[in-house]
Amino acid sequence: MRRLVILTIAVLTALPAVAQEEAATLRLACKADNPTLEAGPFAFSIDEKRGEASETVSGKNYGVMSYRDGFGLYDPAAGRSALVFRIDRVSGRFARIDKQIKVEGSCEKVERKF
Q1: Whole domain around residue 87: which residue ranges?
Q2: Which region holds residue 96: left if phi is over 0, alpha if psi is between -120 and 50, else beta?
Q3: Which first-to-last residue range defines the signal peptide (predicted)?
Q4: How many domains are there within the chain?
Q5: How far, CA to CA in Å, does 90 sit from each of 15, 26, 30, 55, 77?
Q6: 46 touches 71 (CB < 8 A)
Q7: What are phi and psi of 106, to 5 degrees?
Q8: 20, 31, 50, 65: least surrounded by Cβ within 10 Å?
C-alpha cells in the first residue's frame, strides 16, 4: 500500500512538467497559397526554448531562430544563414525562401488531439 502511495505521488508531481513541455511546443499546419508550387501541406512542431523544429509530414528537422514577430527555420547542417522557412507570428503567414521561386502561404495553430 505504501508503494502505491509513493508511486502515485511521483506520477502526480511529474505531470505538470510534462504539461509545461507540451505547452512550450507550438504546432502549426501550413499550406501554400498556390498549391502548384508546393506539393503538399506542412505541419510544423516548433520548440522555441530548445531551438528545434520538425516538419512532421516529411520528418525533416530544422533549427529555430526567434524574431520579435516571427520564426526563421533553417537547415542545421548548413547553419543559421541557410533559412528555409520564415513564419510570421502576427499574421500567420509563411514563406519558403530556400528555392528560386518563393512560396508563400498561411499557417494555423493546431492543438494536440490525444
Answers
A1: 25-109
A2: beta
A3: 1-19
A4: 1
A5: 31, 14, 14, 21, 29
A6: yes
A7: -130, 155
A8: 20
Mean pLDDT across the chain: 80
Enter the C-alpha cell of residue 29: 499546419
* pLDDT above 90 coverage of the chain, percent: 43
Considering the entire predicted model, what is its pTM?
A: 0.72
**For residues 31 and 24, what is the distance between their CA atoms, to the nearest angstrom?**
23
pLDDT in tens, 11-48: 444 444 444 444 578 999 999 998 888 767 889 999 99
Q: In whole angstroms, what is the distance from residue 30 CA to residue 43 CA?
A: 6
Strand-pairing partners, residue 87, are 71, 94
Is residue 12 situated within a structural domain? Answer: no
